[in-house]
Amino acid sequence: MTAVRIAVIGCGSIAKHRHLIEYDLEPNVEIVAVCDIVEGRAREAAEKYGATAYAEYETLLKQEKIDAVSVCLPNYLHAPVSIAALEAGCHVLCEKPMATSREEAQQMIDVANKNDKKLMIAHNQRFVPSHQKARELIEKGELGKIYSFRTAFGHGGPEGWSVDGKDSWFFQKDKAFIGAMGDLGVHKADLMRYLLGEEFTEVAGFVESSAKENSNVDDNAVCILKSASGVVGTLAASWAYSSKEDNSTVIYGEKATLRLEDDPNFSLIAQYTNGEVVKYELGGIQTNDSGGQTTSQVIHHFVTSITENTNPPIDGEDGKKSLEVILNSLESAETKRICG
């Protein structure tokens, strides 16, 4: 099989600790080019993976013959660079959130469709074993009717792992647009859509910027979400969980309660109303604190969608729907109204 020729645009932490490592583990992939405006970062990655370094993505797209691109840039560049790569005839794996507006997200989808190219958004939570098992149990009807949920994603903030530390673009609204909600909350919006198998039609958001100095983006948020069938739950995203990362979800059903990544020893616990308790050891969820996320399966699924010509598991439409939940929460916080 001919190798899939890959370029990684943006050589910060997410590229260094996930994309490049995982592409290198794929037998049918060749990392051809890397790009970063900080030329030293691009050179370092190029030397490690035998690629060509670029400082400008436009030059890379023009000069290199590549099949696919990973976009690992600040949020405000996700849409324009993804669109440029799609127009250049490349499949695109874009980091989350896929865009900073509904309009940008739709443009990405339209260009991908026009050029018959894959567009995948890097929502890795769907591939966590406990999350996949929970979806299986829900689909089998083991919980009966779903009543409610609570899901949270919080840690001490990007300064602990971003390549630029406290000076990271994550804290700058003109580059990030969204703070903790775009960094963490959108992952949980996507996860709950995946687990419940339905969309959220109403969103109420309470969003604050209170935990980080020299930051003008949200760093603490709690949202109330209501699904199409009437499931009501909460979603929390925070950069203020300084003692320990929380990446847990609890789902309350008619016949059972599922606790995901909520116990130090068992990644999934099913507590049934008849008194039965089933504890699953499925391997812990990967965290930045535990040494990176080098087996997220995101890159594997993206490459497979190219080599087998299948639809990516989280395509542009999926990415847009998860983004809309977050955009609705921000709009709700601003207008003091329920949005949907």
Description:
With 340 residues, the chain is of the alpha/beta class. Helices cover 35% and strands 23% of the residues. It contains ten helices and 14 strands. The N and C termini lie far apart (46 Å).
**SS-based class:** alpha/beta
* Physical arrangement of strands within the biggest beta sheet: 8-9-10-7-11-12-13-14
Q: Would you identify the regions where 5 or more consecutive residues have pLDDT less than 50?
A: none
The first-to-last residue Cα distance is 46 Å
Helical run tally: 10
Strand content: 15-25%
Q: Averaged pLDDT, please?
A: 94
The ordered H/E elements are EHEHEHEHEHEHEHHEEEEEEEHH
Over the alpha carbons, how many angstroms does the gyration radius reach?
A: 20 Å
